[in-house]
## 1
Amino acid sequence: MNDNVKNQVHEPLIRVRKRYTMRWYKSWAVRVAAVILALLICALVIVLLTGYNPIDVYKAMIEGNFGNARKMWNTFQELAFLLCISLAVTPAFKMRFWNIGAEGQTLIGGLASAACMIYLADKLPLPVYYLVIIAASILAGMIWSLIPAFFKAKFNTNETLFTLMMNYVAMQLVSFCIVYWENPKDSNTVGVINRKTHAGWLPTIADNKYLLNILIVAALTVAMFVYLKYSKHGYEISVVGESENTAKYIGINVKKVIIRTMALSGALCGIAGLLLVAGTDHTINTTTVGGMGFTAIMVSWLAKFNPIVMTLTSFILVFLDRGASEIATRFKLNESMSDMLTGIILFFIIGCEFFINYKINVRKSRKEEK
Amino acid sequence: MKKVLSIILVLALVLSATLIFAGCENTKTESETNVETDVKGGDDKGGEENNGEENTEAADDFKIGFIFLHDENSTYDKNFMDAATAAKEALGLSDDQVIFKANIPETAECYEAAADLVDAGCDIVFADSFGHEDFMIQAAEEFPDVVFAHATGTKAHTEDLPNFYNAFASIYEGRFLVGVAAGLKLNEMIENGVITADQAKIGYVGAYPYAEVKSGYTSFFLGARYVCPSATMEVKFTNSWFDIAAEKETANALIADGCVLMSQHADSEGAPKACEEAGVPDVSYNLDTREWGPNTALISSKINWQPYFEHLVNCVKEGKEIEQDYCYGLAEGSVEILGLNDDVAAAGTAEKLEEVKAQFIAGTLHVFDTDTFTVGGEKLEEYMADVDSDEAFTPDTQVISDGYFHESEFRSAPYFDIDIDGITIK
């Protein structure tokens, strides 16, 4: 008996093994299956908890996104905002720099646009005025990302904590500025900036409020794809991400890459802030970014840092979010119900990546082994 | 050994799973009752749709849409939601005719929500939060055929759009009344020897030093002093509309500072609970807080939006003109006194309140009577208020005449922002 045990390596019942190859169609089949499964579970939850017909609920989700032209434009605009911030965090994450400060970087970019819109209205010639607003937003986002990047490169500080804390600093700064800009006095709201003159508002294309945002982000997406895939910078980012030592060995200046990449990250967040404040909201408060800086991280990771795939992943998230609020409105359900559905769907979408990346081996019976 | 351990673990898992499911069972019974009502709602819906098909011409395709800043977990928004639901029932509207959009932030999303409600066929769109106003105006300009109404806003009379309206209530009269109840309580405490007359200090937890808050606490104080001349008041701000911890802390600080009676204008349970712990009588706002403070909650005042919603719907249905600034009060039921706690209030409070209320309705008593307060030791003869909101906050309107400050008459939202003697602000 004892000898037997010694000779045999004990094999656990379940063993997880990394998968290196899975055909693309297979992996997509897994993903589609996961979504279908998620929808079935959601249907069950809907029936059990509310008694509504799940088909109606799903229909409401689709109509909430594409019910009419306005909703469709709005969906694409929301997609553009989320995608823009996701594009911003992508190079940093590809470099394995855990930038969870996109929320603050975007907010501070928006704050800079708001400040310029308020203080410089009617003081500069129009083209200069716009240039200053754009430059200030980008610069502000950049500064907000360069501070943690500098400390990471110089003193190897923990960038996760640092970027996270910077979010709260940005929020406090916004609260502080609201005190100076509030209108009317002591109301704690800024109101729409330059509502009468529209000074500093980004122009609309062909009378369409949404198009400009969408076009800018579409261009950025393509640019980011090319940058990451075909430029020397993009290559350096992947090498630093895979192994810092390899990067050092082949003569890449790691510190420089970190700082340069974070500057780019912050600049894109600044643009997102600009589009939000000067392009759409024309006001600023602490909820202007509304958590998109964190959702963007999920978008980026789910797409494995591919900007083109990110359009799809950000679409899924925007679709779920807008669909969820439509359900809440139409069926008079609390938002919590739609949050539950979103949670279930995301759980499956993220969970299925495990089965794509890992294979599960169950111990075969001993007889078979022999 | 390992086997034993794994068996124990499995058992523990099964047990916890059973417990969880048992827990679900409980909640299920709750949700089942919900299902019943929901299903009923669904039936109603079907019924209404059929009716609509039967008489298409006279079809009641009227719809009203509501935009709320938060959901029912905020006492502020819940007050609007309850009123909207009550109005819906009173007017006999179906589920399809009333649309709620909750959790709409004060950004362009508010405009999108308003536009969406218009697309859904709403004849009236109502928004409940101050910061929604500019986006409501934007929507009002774009959709001239739809009525846009907004609570607490200030711009209807300056924008002068044919389809944008502000609304509020003369809540300062309600505040005065609960102030009277507070003053009677102070008198009782003085008579019983609990405090001396010059110890009659009231504490007040305010949100922001905003006119709405200032008008609220000043009228409350004047109400208290109406019956208890030696009363003084100390105000502290939390700089947030909803912050449970800060409100509780502020209340405790005021109590520690010698305040023997408390009141607040902020939306959480923080202050009422602090008062219950300290055993200090508390006058609340917007809801009956007897549940949180059975031994200390004295009385509350609130704005009841139901009369306004009903008025709005009736005006639109009958094609009548709507007031650009709607501000009614005690007589119309827009201002309500609630939660009078007989265990806490002084004897005869209810009778006294009825008497004062009747004077308000008759117009013989004014909250901001300039004979009853001084500013910097002097009687206020005139005051220019910033009624027309502009960026420089220029005072533009003479609001004192006939011996009193005319609150909420030149626009619905309050504009009394004077610091009067007797109130210290910290």
## 2
Amino acid sequence: MDDSSTAQRIAKSAAAATPPAMARQIRGLSDRAIAWLFVTPTIILLLAINIFPLIWTVYLSFTNYRANRLNREVEWIGLRNYERVLTDTDIWHTLQVTAHFVGWTMFFQVIIGFGLAWLINKQFRGHSFWTTLILLPMMLSPAVVGNFWTFLYQPQIGLFNYIVAFFAGIEPSSFQMIGDVNLAPWAIVIVDTWMWTPYVMLICLAGLRSIPDYIYEAAEVDRASKWRQFWSITVPMVLPFLMLAVLFRVIENFKMFDLVVELTSGGPGSVTELASINLKREAFEKWRTGYSSAFAIILFVTVFGVANIYVKALNKVKQR
Amino acid sequence: MSRQDIDHRKDSESQSLLTRFLQLRRGPWENLATVIIAVGTFMLMQPFYLELFTYSFVTILTGTVMFIIVSHFKE
Amino acid sequence: MSAASAHSVVESKPWTRHLAGGVVILYALITILPLVWILMTSFKTPPDSISYPPKVIFEPSLEGYVNLFTTRTRQTPEYMASLPPPENWVERLVRDRNMVIAGPSKFGERFLNSVIIGFGSTFLSVFLGTLAAYAFSRFKVPLKDDLMFFILSTRMMPPIAVAIPIFLMYRTLGLSDTHLGMILLYTAVNVSLAVWLLKGFIDEIPREYEEAALIDGYTRLQAFVKVVLPQAATGIAATAIFCLIFAWNEYAFALLLTSGTAQTAPPFIPTIIGEGGLDWPAVAAGATLFLIPIVVFTIVLRKHLLRGITFGAVRK
């Protein structure tokens, strides 16, 4: 209280002492000052809420700290957490589960997404209306939607089982998408594909629309077959866009949490326990803070590495 | 003048990959770092050998640090 | 980019166009089926929602919505008979199930939290983002590319990885489970998107406008407020909607850092429990109310969607 009033007094006297010309100069700040003034708040916020916690995670990863035991002495144990994480077969297993999830979702999303974009690019009547409809799932809350999908996957009453059973000619209660060890990894792939195919589609569509017509016209003059045109014009021109979409989805699915936690919460057993879900268990259920911090750093560095490549792809597309 | 320019460009295009590495150009080094990150990510997630998994983090870290450094090289 | 060039060789034949249209429409219908099912389930009674085969035609009921907003207790028939006649349709609906309303549920509160945190963080991130984007767009900032990458990379962080120390930090500062804490957190995540998107929008505004204003005797700040901001209005609005959608949908941080006062709707909706498991019509009703704003926003945004999901790199 005292401090601020002194500060005010000083400010007032300073203002009184400042000649008008200088006051104008302060009001009309130099470009350099404005640049700093405008950028600094953002940087400070990011430092406080992203970078500082990150550095703290790095520190914790070298200790045996446990967040649920505040009185225990924190010991510096060097790289031992990293050693443990990187030789832990359970963690290795969760990363394989993640690989299955990332690999197959990418496969389906690229094929379906590109295919849809290619079809939409044929500009049939009403294509923009249907495109908007297709885009809806990706904007919705993954947790809320994922939770509802558990209802669609119910063996007896679920719509998904009913429709699949209807077309396959089997009993709807004869299979359990979420409860079955063999089907659960595919259940999460299906929902993620349903949700994020529009993302790949939209970016592919932009790639297709960036190809100028005259290239095809020239190819037509050269009597290149449609098949040739597709592989030597369409695919290479769309590829940078596709890379952009895939890299972003790889990053997002590598750290996937919300959708799958609500769908299967890692079960049955640990067949759908993705890296992030395992990390959440270690950190917030078993409270092995130091150990999970090391795991978090490993995941973070991987994401950060791929993010570097992503930004490179981003700049490549931007030049177009 | 323009003749020289063309010659010069031809020169730089015909430069071997090796000399461009040695000249510390951004392009090839960035590609190398990208490959290292990709290999590291594969090592992290492959189901075959535990040893590969163990050394994946070091590989990714190397690639990432390298990427950050070489992205400051001139084009 | 319309199909105006009717004579072009690129134009596909009518029958391929029809076929393409057919396939796309089929996919679109399949893809919105789960969403339609959410809407339908929200108007079913609990027995209808779990009937076999799944009911497509049913008598619509508001029971799901009533259950969503109330908590109820089961009573003995004697007690039910002793009650005065129901005052309104809500009470009648509940009493048909041999229950009485015990009070409002937490859904309203959670929804309000989502609104407060969503709008608060959106306002802050757009405000900070506009300033930073303007500086990055117009001035020479040292290490500009590195700073831009640094800003973007913060968005790529796995939420769970930073959640551990944020959890500890918030516990120390008393920010855990508070609106302010969540607003700051979502702002930090969203500001990166805001900076990247808005830089793209501001880059597109010709510098000449500001320069003319500067010659007219405006200061830099005045030129920014009176010339650039109005020009960037559409971009700012689009960015705001993107930030709002992120904050609205966010789940991981909300799950780990909030439990009561500041909990948003996404971690809450899946926990709506009826008698014997999840109360699906109520869950669907909650989901419907929660998803409708986003559906509306998506339709409003559709021209800017591409830009938003590529951090402004792809514009058309």
## 3
Amino acid sequence: MAVVFEKPKSLTDAPFHYCPGCPHGIIHRLVAEVMDELGIEGKAIGVAPVGCAVMAYDYFSCDMIEAPHGRAPAVATGIKRCRPDNVVFTYQGDGDLASIGMAETVHSAARNENITVIFVNNAIYGMTGGQMAPTSLPGQVTQTSPYGRDVNHCGWPIRVSEMLATLEGPEYVARVAVNNVKNVKNAKKAIKKAFENQIAGKGFSLVEVVSACPTNWGMTPKAALEWVESDMLPYYPIGVYKDRSAGEDK
Amino acid sequence: MAERILMKGNEAIAEAAIRAGCRHYFGYPITPQTEIAAYMAKKMPKIGGVFLQAESEIASINMVYGAAAAGMRVMTSSSSPGISLKAEGLSYIAGSDVPALVVNVQRGGPGLGGIQPSQSDYFQATKGGGHGDYRMIVLAPASVQEMASLTIKGFDLADKYRMTSMILADGTIGQMMEPITFEDAEITTYEKPWALTGTECKRKHNVVNSLYLKPDELERKNFERYEKYAEIEKNEAMWEDYMMDDAEICVVAFGIASRVAKNAVAMARAEGIKVGLIRPITLWPFPNAAFEAADKAKAFISVELSMGQMIEDVKLATKCQKPVYLCNRTGGMIPSPDEILASIRNAMKGE
């Protein structure tokens, strides 16, 4: 019988610990499918964050390291500068990348560090149980903004992709989403490009994946995906924000 | 015979690191150690190495973490406030059992403190600094020559035991110039089957990690690590004895303080006082055996550029059975030989 669907080789057999309806599983799978398609599982080195994806080192079958909170781009820099022939990627959430690790993010982008960054933005701290993130929307109710995010009190959510696109450094910055089939397919294309850029030596490539957190948003998985469409994407529009080699022949 | 050259202490560290096979340096500017970064910036690109100025001490220690996990001889250097920022990374490096060399050319503290020499990071270096149960091998050079030799030794110990070696120097030794010799050091290469190299699809993936959510696993990991530390305590303690054979008063000092103390010991000897010096070269492991051998000593004097930090280890090493006096300056001040001599005379009188 013909095999029509199977687990990517770049994923281990370890069952995901993620909550029901959490898109981390989809995003892990997209990264793994891309690694399979590019044939880089054997030379990839992944950097796991602190956050819900902290145990990504159990799920990807390539060599893995777990970084301190927010420091994944610095750890990836250390690895890549030592082993330029390996393919080095980080997988980070919004608290990790856009709050505690913002300096590491901005400076690795400014250096055009030849790494791939997968940035999962679900507008909340998931692992610690649903606190306000640097990307939580105005008015969003979280454990630490119980009356809704008051921008006069704690400021505005940060649009990471738009901000990084203002830098000379980075090669590629794109925002995608995984709330429907079409967006998932496009997300995979962007992730693949972010890895291809590294292999071609083009430099820092970041894909911001707008995701959902049904558990901490207090929604069903379906309602959470609808909220991505109705509330998240208007503030965080899908698009390619920087692509230095756009228009070059494939 | 190897050439004798005049060098600054900080530069001696950098040159020794290169000779020890270090080809990756990640740092951030801070006085009084910046010559190390400057030397690396000049040399590394010419020998196929990597020098990278990070955006912060936090980023630089995490670059070290990544490079160490990738199996490289790697180092960073900083001074006291910068080491506080590196503490997070030091804890992760310890918890992940990867080797690294970290240099602290100390300045006065706490806070921004000052930029003059100090030894007030003794607790931070020997008792922790970062969170959790861990140790670092701490080496205390007292000359520019030792800045070089202990750097080479530090890399070897780091690789041998898969942990951080820290060079705990001070602003004086970092900044002063002395003639030194680079003997051709024998460099041992260690197998690193745990390193992140890419699996080549030929082996199970390597994972470098300090997270153990199951408490029994974390406990076992920590016990195992402490068995390694016990081996180091048994095998790696280093110290220098000076005029200790008949010493009734024992001065204890490391780094720049030990050089002033040596003068004071010679002055006291001229007065007929039977005094000697124990100079710990490893601060962790602390050279307890040196104190067991000092059985004729009636009293000890800990000479430090701090409010008295090593003195606690001297009391432990002597099992609190003999008086231990403190002779100290702090904040960037250094005691004169006369001040130490006065302490020696007082100790003779039991004061």
